[in-house]
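From the shared-data thread, chain only:
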Amino acid sequence: MRKELLVNATPPETRVALTEDGRVVEVFHERRGRQSLVGNVYLGRVHRVLPGMQAAFVSIGLDRDAFLYVEDVVPPAGDFDFGEEDGDRAANGETSERADRPRIDDLVREGQEIVVQVTKDAVASKGPRVTSAFSLAGRTLVYLPEAREAGVSRRIVDDVERERLRGLLEKLPGDGAFIARTAALGKSAEELEADHAYLTGLAARIARRRESAGPPTLLHREADLALRSARDLVDDDCDVIRVDDPAAFERMRELLEVVSPKLASRLELYSGTEPLFTRFGVEAEIENALRSRVPLPSGGSIVIHQTEALVAIDVNTGKFVGKENLEQTVFEANLEAAPEVARQIRLRDLGGLLVVDFIDMEDPEHRRALFDRFAQEMSRDRARTRLLPISEFGLIEATRQRSRGNLERVLTRACPECAGGGRVRSDMTVALDLRRALLAPPVLFSAGERVRVRVRPGVAKLLTQDDPRIVEEVESSLGVRIEVAPDETLGEEGYEIDRG
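Structure, as tokens:
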């Protein structure tokens, strides 16, 4: 399988796409002023302790306090055992009466200074979720300064390799513990030691800032999307990394030369006249991923519907009628749909409870073969996923950890015309689409020309008041003057560009 990483970096937005055999499987967005906080480390102060919820609010300098659950607090002596069941209960706002479980008011007190790391961004009215057991990620290792026992990624299944890596980890000097990431597979002691030096140095810098700072203070900012993609998405089987921005290219090169010199040689600065994401079909894939219906080559289709409770995915035969009996036709349609369902789950970052309604089959062997095929496709997903066997109703239920911003939620908003029953592109998404249209070659405007753009009122406000840099950057790049005109007659999706 040929894997490529594409990085489209512009001042207002950075986008990253991972492709496998030419097909986009994952897309990431990071917009100016709206970067994720996940991975950031703060020196905070406990603002309020809630014994009834076994949680605490921690002030970290944001508009809303962060939420710290009891199982996310490192016990002073490390003597308490938190089971997976307890973590699930706490995540749902429940409490446990286990005698060996500490209470939140035994672990933290109001006014206490505490170092925490963001594990989930703020959602709606909820503040971000944090943990005091912070970790620092490198390419092959994760460093846990507060832990004591080494570990190996579950994705490394070979017992001999697991023991080899565990032995190398135990020889690493210093306090804390290290976990070997999937990228550590087959790596030498020297390669792990390079990551060890990088991570312990980073931890030391955080500790020095902690000594001289008062809460609330940001102690460590997680790397931006371009650097995270080089660190987390690029494996030895990645054939090429294409970047269209010289500054992002240099930063990624510097990182890879430290953590993986072999991969640094696969970094390319893209200089084609056609935009990177257009050239490799990513723009079209993003457009299609905002639609509910996904056509299949045979004539069948997949329909994806996201609700508050779950994501429902329905497989239909459509125009596919097959050549033999109905059972064989249905089996072939399901086998064709399985890899595309798995790809769409990754591409759209569908998380939480997923219910896939494959077309019902009678033959038990067909059911087993379909489940095995779907499980094999889902095994490529980096997010933690759990599948249940096909039910008697032909359904596969799955849970999937959200690894980034759901594509639909990032690029769209609730439709104002249907009381939230549908979704349309957000103002920022329309503004960035307009920016790309103005800058796309061949350039249609001459230096000094006046360009008038008509957009819906919300987009006009964004371009003239909330983020005028988008217009200023286009004007500077093209040498033109742009006039933004609000137009209520335009549809929710649209903009128009006039000359003169």
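Residues 189-212 form the longest helix (24 residues).
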